[in-house]
Amino acid sequence: MDFGSILKKLRTEKNITQEELAKVLNVSRPTIGRYEINERFPDQENLVKLSKFFNVSIDYLLGLTDIKEPINELIKKGEVSIKPPSDIERIYESLPDEEKKMFNDYAKYLETRAKLNQGDKESSATSEAI
């Protein structure tokens, strides 16, 4: 969905007129109409005001996600947690670039080996079943 459609949907869900929304943003009613048909786009300040007014994330307003709620609201509800980096992430970030490349190569090797081992196990299980 595009910005204008999302804005119109939010406005109608909240049962407010373009005029009422225009007052919130301190713009004219025709400006809201132009936002809704994608002829104009709000500046950063009004984008933030819209986000707060409708209690949605800016990413949602821009059509970048289907998740309406701002991240801080999701964290408060416990629906999203921010975990500290794992030991592996900390170690990786401390490595020089050349060693990061070696680290990635080794991780790919381990992944490939695990897939091959899984394939061998499935083959032997099939052979034993026959």
TrEMBL record:
Molecular function in Gene Ontology: DNA binding
SUPFAM superfamilies named in the record: lambda repressor-like DNA-binding domains
HTH cro/C1-type domain residues: 7-61
Keywords assigned by UniProt, alphabetized: DNA-binding
Keyword DNA-binding: yes
PROSITE patterns: HTH_CROC1
Entry-linked InterPro entries: Cro/C1-type_HTH, Lambda_DNA-bd_dom_sf
PANTHER family assigned: HTH-TYPE TRANSCRIPTIONAL REGULATOR XRE (PTHR46558:SF11), TRACRIPTIONAL REGULATORY PROTEIN-RELATED-RELATED (PTHR46558)
Designated name of the protein: Transcriptional regulator, contains XRE-family HTH domain
Organism, as annotated: Lutispora thermophila DSM 19022
